[in-house]
Design brief:
296 residues, Rossmann fold, Glucose Oxidase, domain 1, 2 domains, 7-stranded mixed beta sheet, 6-stranded mixed beta sheet
């Protein structure tokens, strides 16, 4: 399967917009970080109200997003934070607008919903990476900082070798994201597509039994039967002892056994301290503990 359509590379010095599809947050430190990389920032004009979630908020956030895509004045879209709410926007997004202006979308966690929608409805690549009020606000390690801006410019970084949980070689379009969000996509118009693809998974604040429950749901839905490979990111605060880690490893290997595909762990991406950006929709090649990305 060929990679999906690449996003427009971010030009040096081009303005970027911060959007808030999921939740409000303090993005000041993250915005300073983006500006320090040489990109003026358009701050979000619309955030979700404090009274919960509403169609009015969904429409306002979608309209702001469409204005950025139509306006031609920004070169990338950075998500303010995760949390909850991105899945509500997809009912109102216009695929034709995205296809005419394939700007890179950067975000993680709840933003998984938008990444999956872009793959299924627009055939577009996007970036699973740090949010403005999260990793960018805290500060990225130098390797992850360099990887983000390299990827935005259209050049995938060199990823560090991972730990081989199941040996082998596989090639396929990269999909995935936060494990919980992958499960909630099932039965929706943005349902994750996995056949012949490499699947990236990560999670936060879920105990091992909940990880196994999510993997079981994906397996029972047939989403783990025909994988080209698996990349395992950070399972942050999902049990801090060796037994919990061993349980999660066993669950992942058992759930993907029917694919008998390579499984590589230790990918420095997710909710933990390392947030090395990944190009969802790009072609991914796994060989042993090494993995490469090709945008075209």
């Amino acid at each position: 399967m060929a990679p999906l359509t690449p996003f427009f590379p971010l030009a040096q010095g081009a303005p970027v917009a911060v959007i808030a599809p999921a939740a409000e947050g303090d993005g000041n430190a993250g915005i300073v970080s983006i500006e320090g990389a040489g990109h003026p920032v358009v701050r979000p004009a619309v955030v979700r109200g404090a009274g919960g979630w509403s169609v009015a908020d969904d429409l306002s956030l979608t309209q702001e997003l469409h204005r950025y895509l139509r306006g031609g004045r920004v070169g990338a879209l950075f998500c303010l934070r995760g949390g909850y709410g991105s899945g509500r926007l997809v009912d109102h997004l216009d695929a034709a607008v995205w296809q005419q202006a394939p700007l890179p979308l950067v975000g993680m966690s709840d933003i998984t919903a938008l990444h999956l929608w872009l793959q299924r409805h627009c055939d577009l690549q996007s970036i699973y990476g740090p949010v403005v009020a999260g990793g960018l606000a805290r500060g990225l390690v130098p390797e992850d900082e360099a990887a983000l801006w390299s990827l935005l410019a259209g050049t995938p970084p060199t990823y560090p070798e991972g730990e081989v949980w199941r040996p082998g070689r596989g090639v396929g379009v990269l999909t995935g994201g936060c494990l919980t969000l992958l499960c909630t996509s099932i039965g929706t118009p943005w349902e994750v597509e996995t056949t012949g693809r490499c699947l990236f998974i990560e999670e936060v604040n879920e105990p091992p039994y909940a990880i196994d429950r999510s993997l079981t749901q994906l397996r029972q839905a047939g989403k783990l039967d025909h994988l080209a490979g698996v990349l395992v990111g950070t399972f942050h605060r999902c049990g801090e002892d060796e037994q919990a880690a061993a349980t999660i490893r066993a669950s992942i290997l058992a759930a993907t056994a029917t694919s008998d595909c390579p499984v590589v762990a230790g990918v420095p991406c997710g909710h933990g301290d390392r947030q090395m950006a990944l190009p969802l929709g790009a072609e991914c090649e796994i060989d042993g503990g090494r993995y490469w990305m090709r945008l075209r």
